Amino acid sequence: MGELFVLTEGIIRDLVGFGEAELKAVEAVYPLISDGSAVMPDIMRIDVEAHNGEIDVKSAFLPGYPGIAIKVSAGFFNNPKRGLPSLGGFMVVLDAETGIPTAALFDNGYLTDLRTGLAGAVAARHLARPDSSRLAVLGAGVQARFQVQALRLVLAIETVTVWARRRERAEALARDLSDQLGIEVRATDSVEAAAAGADVVVTTTPATDGFLKQNHLRPGQHLTTVGSDAELKRELGEGIFDLVDVVVVDSLRQSMRLGEARSAVAEGYDPEGLIELGTVVAGKHPGRTSPEQITLCDLTGTGAQDTAIAGLTVQRAREQSRGDVVIT
Question: Residue 5 and residue 14: Cα distance in Å, rounded?
């Protein structure tokens, strides 16, 4: 017999958020990916074309971690027309030594959004200029909001510019963030205007058309992309990788399959120029070496992140006696 912690979204949001411990938990997984310690299988994806949806399954074993998370993440993009969220999912945590289930986390995608936001902060911590204060976020969904919140953990963000294909969504997000964070946040009509004055540019869309172009970027900027996590998605236009001085990916194997790196290499970019984020975090690669360089981090989202953030959630649930316990 054993105990299975059952946690719902409200409790999970109380347990983990935008804190330094959460940031460190996500940061710690990247060296494990880069040195081969993480056992992280390829993502399994089920395309549900009949309903404009997809289901992804991610997981990873991390040495020294007590649990292994298996995440089922669903994106059904007709849902908003029905008054339902487009993204959702849950995680199951298994004991790393016995394989016995120890927790079920019905987070409705919150933990994925959180760890993705924190990953953007990790990338900026190691690649952006330390004095970066102006942020451009391209997209106006949940992840756009989370990227702004997370980046404030590592940079003194003073102004934010938001662009989205639907101006009204950009304006709504700008109002919400301005009220919530007490900083200047404004919407703009064009990608070029958003990126022009930014120190850090973050793309957070499900685009397939490579809307961010070479002429949108400036020396000294850092660019993080989080939208491309499937073969047909693409936020960066042709030649961006050739323009950038330092190109970093979260997982080389995964980015070559699903990320912006896939398109760039197909168009002639030399994959030898790709650096894994874990080597920068571990100090094995310097990352940015001058203020004038343009740096890029291609984030595709890893099962290692899921195992880390799920483990922290379960640890805090046990410490605080939160959630329901099912005897199995």
Answer: 15
Domain tally, the chain:
2
DSSP of 231-251, one letter per residue? TT---BPTTHHHH-SEEEES-
Question: Can you tell me whether residue 167 is helix, strand or coil?
Answer: helix
Give the CATH number for residue 74: 3.30.1780.10
Selected catalytic residue, list 24, 58, 71, 233 = 71
Residue 253 parent element (H or E):
helix 252-258
Token readout for 302 is 């890893």
Per-residue confidence band for 129, with pLDDT thresholds at 50, 70 and 90 = very high
Q: Put residue 254 in one of left, alpha, beta given phi > 0 → left and psi -120 to 50 → alpha.
A: alpha
- DSSP reduced 3-state for 301: coil
| Residue 316: domain span | 3-111+304-327
* Distance in Å from the first CA to the final CA of the chain: 5
- State the DSSP H helix or E strand holding residue 138, giving kind and residue range, or none if neither: strand 134-138
Indicate the residue type of 275: I
C-beta of residue 103 within 8 angstroms of C-beta of residue 92: yes
Query: How confident is the model over 270-318, as pLDDT tens digits?
Result: 999 999 999 999 999 999 999 999 999 999 999 999 999 999 999 999 9
One domain for residues 273 and 261? yes
Nearest one of 148, 130, 105, 77 to 16, comparing CA atoms: 105
Is 71 designated active site? yes
Instruction: Determine contact, residues 61/38, Cβ cutoff 8 Å.
Output: yes
